[in-house]
Amino acid sequence: MNWDDVRIFLAVARAGQLLAAGRRLGLNHATVARRVSALEEALKVKLVDRRTNGCHLTSAGERFLASAEGMEAEMLAATAATDADVELSGTVRIGAPDGFGVAFLAPRLGELTARHPGLTVQLVPGPRSISLSRREADIAVAVERPEHGRLVARKLVDYTLGLFAHARYLETHGTPNGPADLKDHQLVGYVEDLVFSPALAYASEVAKDWQARFEIASTLGQTEAVRAGAGIGILHSFIARRDPELVPVLPEKTIDRAYWLVYHETLRDQRRIRVVADFITDLVEREKGIFA
């Protein structure tokens, strides 16, 4: 059995397509298909069903996936043992919610790349879940501790959300005295069917009958709409507090959440993963006052 064939099988299993796996590996899809076939021939078993809508693992493929990931972990550990004294290099992709990713990480990751000139850091912020098992990212910042999968998780920091409005909006429309008054105001919220985690469906914690007339599938998009005077929104406090024109509304109504740093356990021994994970952890600890 050829390790390169196993590596290509893993890419196909994670990408769900020959073409997508080839892009990640820098190979054409015909080569990927040929190498997967070679692995199946060596093992005398069919691992992948190739369909028009993508590739799906057979039951044998699902069983072999666990073994292949174990082999990958051993290879990574062996590589890590030999590069301890080598300059840090390679690429680390970080997936994060857009609020944390853009408002907090993006202005600060330059310190990391300046410290390690051979390291390439890719930040992928967005309003969606990142799959570590499919290697969409090496490290993810999540809003819930994962309960399933072979993942390493550490809590980064607690944060709060609250109601905010621009001073101009409140001058025109008045300030609500309680949650019941919100029905008389223009509300800015999230697109409910695009919320990727139950922890982000928090509007009912503020008002049971919350009805936003302006819905945006982005934390930063909601912040910009509220900043422009579109209405009252539930915003991340550490972002909203940076603008003195954004005024807390019903400040007793706060929502508590937490950020978690997560990566796949097979990457535990990769030096560049450890360095980036430790940098983010230390960075948050150093500046955790802004989340309080």
Record keyword descriptors for this entry.
single chain; alpha/beta; Arc Repressor Mutant, subunit A; D-Maltodextrin-Binding Protein, domain 2; 8-stranded mixed beta sheet; 10 strands; elongated
Q: Please state the second-level CATH architecture of the largest domain.
A: 3-Layer(aba) Sandwich
Summarize model confidence as the mean pLDDT.
90
Helix content: 25-40%
Number of domains: 3
Shape: elongated
By DSSP (H or I, 4+ residues per run), the number of helices equals 10
Given as residue ranges, the uncertain stretches (5+ residues, pLDDT < 50) are none
Question: Structural class of the secondary elements?
Answer: alpha/beta
β-strand number:
10
Give the CATH class of the largest domain: Alpha Beta
Q: What does the main sheet amount to?
A: 8 strands, mixed
Share of residues in strands: 15-25%
End-to-end C-alpha gap: 53 Å
CATH topology of the largest domain: D-Maltodextrin-Binding Protein, domain 2
- Gyration radius over CA: 23 Å
List the helices and strands and how they pair.
Elements: H1 3-15, H2 18-25, H3 29-43, E1 48-51, E2 54-57, H4 59-82, E3 90-96, H5 98-105, H6 110-115, E4 119-125, E5 139-142, E6 151-166, H7 167-173, E7 187-189, E8 214-215, H8 219-227, E9 232-236, H9 237-240, E10 246-264, H10 271-286
Parallel strand pairs: 3-4, 3-5, 7-8, 7-9
Antiparallel strand pairs: 1-2, 5-10, 6-9, 6-10
Describe this structure in words.
- The protein has 292 residues and is of the alpha/beta class.
- It is built from ten helices and ten strands.
- It has three domains: 3-82, Winged helix-like DNA-binding domain superfamily/Winged helix DNA-binding domain (Arc Repressor Mutant, subunit A, Orthogonal Bundle); 90-156 and 259-291, Periplasmic binding protein-like II (D-Maltodextrin-Binding Protein, domain 2, 3-Layer(aba) Sandwich), CATH 3.40.190; 158-258, D-Maltodextrin-Binding Protein, domain 2, CATH 3.40.190.
- Strands 4-3-5-10-6-9-7-8 form an eight-stranded mixed beta sheet. The chain has a two-stranded antiparallel ribbon with strand order 1-2.
- It is elongated, with a radius of gyration of 23 Å.
- The mean pLDDT is 90.
